[in-house]
Amino acid sequence: MSPYPEALRQRVERYLEGLRFAREPGVSGLDEAMRYSLLAGGKRIRPVLALATAGALGADAEEVMPLAGAIELIHTYSLIHDDLPAMDDDDLRRGRPTCHKAFGENVAILAGDGLYAEAFRLLLTEQRGEPARVLAAGAELAAATAADGMVGGQYIDVTETALPGADGLRHLHELKTGRLIGASVGCVLLLVGSAEDARMREFRSFASELGVLFQIVDDILDVTGTEAALGKTQGSDARHGKRTYVSEYGVDQARALALASYDQARATLSRAAPDGARELEQITDFIFTRTS
Amino acid sequence: MSPYPEALRQRVERYLEGLRFAREPGVSGLDEAMRYSLLAGGKRIRPVLALATAGALGADAEEVMPLAGAIELIHTYSLIHDDLPAMDDDDLRRGRPTCHKAFGENVAILAGDGLYAEAFRLLLTEQRGEPARVLAAGAELAAATAADGMVGGQYIDVTETALPGADGLRHLHELKTGRLIGASVGCVLLLVGSAEDARMREFRSFASELGVLFQIVDDILDVTGTEAALGKTQGSDARHGKRTYVSEYGVDQARALALASYDQARATLSRAAPDGARELEQITDFIFTRTS
Question: Where are the beta strands (DSSP E) in chain A?
Answer without folding.
Answer: 92-93, 96-97
